[in-house]
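Fold it.
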Amino acid sequence: MMGAATVFICTFMCAVCLPVGAAVSNDDYRFVMWTDETLDGNTTMSNTLIVQGENLTVYCWLTDPTNDTLATRQALFDTYIALNQAPSLTIYNRTWSQTFHFPSTNESKSWELTIPTTEFSHQDKTPTEQWRVSLALGHRNFLTQGSLLLVQREPILHWLLGDRLPAPPVLWEKETDQLVITKSPCSPDVAVLGVAENNFTSAGVILGVTYHHFRENYTTWFNMTQNPSLCNITTDCSLLRLVDFLLTNRHLLLLTNQGLYVSSDLIGWDSLAQVQFLSTSINSLMSAVFQAGNVSRANTRLWNTPECESVTPGYTPADHVIITHHPPVGSEINNTSYYSTAPYTTWETLAPNSGAAVVSAAYDIQKDNFVILKQTQDGPRVTVVSRTGGGGQLYPPAEFPPSFTPSGLAFHPVNHFLYAYGSQVFVSLDGGSSFDPILSLPVGQSVSSFDADVHHGTVAMVTGEGDIFYGTADDHAQ
């Protein structure tokens, strides 16, 4: 199943999909577009445009999916050049759009267009919502969509997280639920990959940072245990193990078996400087949990609802991060959960200590509430509490069947549907006051990770066995 999981990483996590028709006619011709940075031999990948300099130079072919050869591409190009026709490229996000026209005469072997990056972006270092692009001939003929990544505007790509590794390491050989991936809140093509509680390699904590599908030429691997700021504050760096991690707009948070570490502000990057980490003490209770060695991925997790900093002009999201901990059976320490906002130096209690295990929690960006998923003696329950006004419960708890073993909660960034997943999957259209079942898994299987396409309603869920369930969230609203 490892191969299936790799397909998920390279396609859905980077969120670029092309429509495929069962029957192909001239109307089903599609463009393939690329930049110099996204060429892989003689092929292009996923219609992703990457910009690293002052200009965006886009190349494109028109292709026939039933007979896609260099000769057929050249024939289609020659045909439309002879007709004095050329495509148009539209660059857009949720708040801005502009169309650029390729020259109708071209002496090269493909259409080519150069656009100064100042036409669609400020030249600064702050994160910005990743652009989408569409390519069409005439009035939306052969419409093809893709994404555009401006490397300058993605802070995580400009830091050294530790010592660079010369080649991709062999990280794991077990179940895929050890894999942890966190995406940039602004650019889904930018992601960080690590392996939780990895005892397979003695190299330490390894993270890979990619901006193009974890392909070799677009991914940098770091040995985090060679970062002096991280190892100087741990009790024994050789025993450091990753439990969970999150990338927010401005910080990388590492939850380890020895503590929680928060990076310095990533936006103030100085190219290829080494990122600094600081230990954050949540409170004395969690400090005792770390010291006792009772932190594992099975009982302690980080959660957040990603929100790109630049989507709303003049608004900076608080980037709420939640940590949940439910100790092993028989432990004298109660269940705990806390939340914080950037720069994550002060933490507040999310849910009071109780006999119910807090499995997961999610921050509702639209309503400024917290949604908490608990495992009680009577079965799983979801409660919605206000972030302000004393944290009072807003609705009666939503109840799930006792057969449901929960793993997590996640909001969809497009339509704001709320998913509760585990041995089954449920969806809420009202922010957590009620849920409807949408998926039951075979006995023994459980969804261990969830991801959503930030541009459409699609979702993907991966089980611990490596099976992938993929669908459109909007279907549940019918």
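Confidence is low (pLDDT under 50) at residues 1-25.
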